[in-house]
Amino acid sequence: MCTLSVVIPAYNEENGIAEIMNRVLSIRSALQNVGVDELELLVVDDGSKDKTAIIAREIARNDQNVVVITHEVNKGYGGALKTGFSKAKGELIGFLDADGTYPPEYFPLLCQQALNGADLVIGSRMAGEQSQMPATRRVGNLFFAGLLTMLGWQKITDSASGMRVVKREILSQIYPLPNGLNLTPVMSTRAVHEGIRMCEVPIPYSERIGRSKLSVVRDGLLFLQSMVWTVMAYNPVRVLGLMGLAGILLAFLVVFGLITARISGVTTIGPWGVAALFAGMVSGVTGVALFALGATSNYLVSLFYKKNIRQGLFGKPIFKKPLESRFGVLGSIILFSGLILSIVSLSLGISGWEIERLWLYLLGSAMMILTGVQLILYWSLMRVLEDLSQRELLIKKDLNG
Q1: Which end of the chain is more exposed for a tag (fewer CB within 10 A), N or C?
Q2: Contacts of 165 (CB under 8 A, 6+ apart)
Q3: Do 11 and 133 belong to one domain?
């Protein structure tokens, strides 16, 4: 016996709520054809000021499988969905918006994928079916799908789709979820990093009934912030490491430019050269710090979860030993090289060399010393965290002989 509970969050949707409810109720026979025996419909009226709740209750009077839940105050899109999830009785829980943009007729296809093994099935508006999505929102959805693909190292075409089917048993893995419109991208991000079996089914997308409640700029920034912080809770080095590598790359480009200029016979640099040198040195030191912080934070995440959760900068190891395990040696080499360069430069200055010939070497040595010290400090911290993560295992080993 398998039941699908469909949750519809509704806020001031009196013009479209009846149509979407009737469309959901009309798919019973199609659901039975794919192995879903019962359909439950839950409408969560999220503090509406219009007749949304009245219209929904009229339909519920004629169908015992329709439940209307009312929030006295507006809790937000995510808050309404979570209320529906908590009241749903089905093994499969689906949801879609009340504005008629998503096609409930595709729920049988989504349920079929869930019954075939997927834990989370997303109706993708970006996977090829006909779509009436506004251009600005299409660009935004492409960006967020690409961002999650890059940060999660798994191909996703629609990270923010509002039509999904999820197995009740995996809700605890993808919680907590926010109360706002950012529930769907956070759900996708958590599912990717929790190793949830996901798949996408192409669906058409229609023009909504009534006025949209989504703000492209405000909610777009909220989506971005939510996704990045969610990734940071699982795999910090994916975010911080990529930022750090970008800074290190910029520093190398500046150094390459200076070496090329010196080989070409240029012995002085103008204002733009000074600006480039400043940017390169700042980005280099900052890049190393961000990369090392990301690697160290991964140890903290492992300590918290007591296991690795899809960790790594590129999704799989590049070196036999983790790069961060070499931070101590690498930092010592850079620190020692910086000290030698500074001693030589200062000695030449004391012996009469002009500062115009030495300032760049002194600046470079200072950067090397700072970078080396940072790497050694982060390596020391990671050693402590690694020892703490192994503490319970070592205690059990010693006690058991």
Answers
A1: C
A2: 4, 92, 93, 94, 107, 110, 111, 113, 114, 120, 121
A3: yes
- 325 in the same domain as 198: no
**Claim to verify: residue 225 and residue 245 sit in the same structural domain:** no
Which pLDDT tens digits describe the chain residue by residue (401 residues)? Answer: 799 999 999 999 999 999 999 999 999 999 999 999 999 999 999 999 999 999 999 999 999 999 999 999 999 999 999 999 999 999 999 999 998 889 999 999 999 999 999 999 999 988 766 766 777 778 888 888 888 988 888 899 999 999 999 999 999 999 999 999 999 999 999 999 888 999 999 999 876 555 666 667 787 889 889 999 998 888 888 888 889 999 999 988 988 887 787 778 776 777 887 788 888 888 988 998 898 888 888 878 877 777 665 556 666 655 556 666 678 888 899 999 989 998 998 888 888 887 777 777 888 888 889 889 988 988 888 788 777 766 666 666 556 65
**What is the spatial distance between Cα 135 and Cα 123, in angstroms, rounded to a whole number?**
19
pTM: 0.79
Dist CA 186 CA 231 (whole Å):
9
Residue 28 structural domain: 3-232
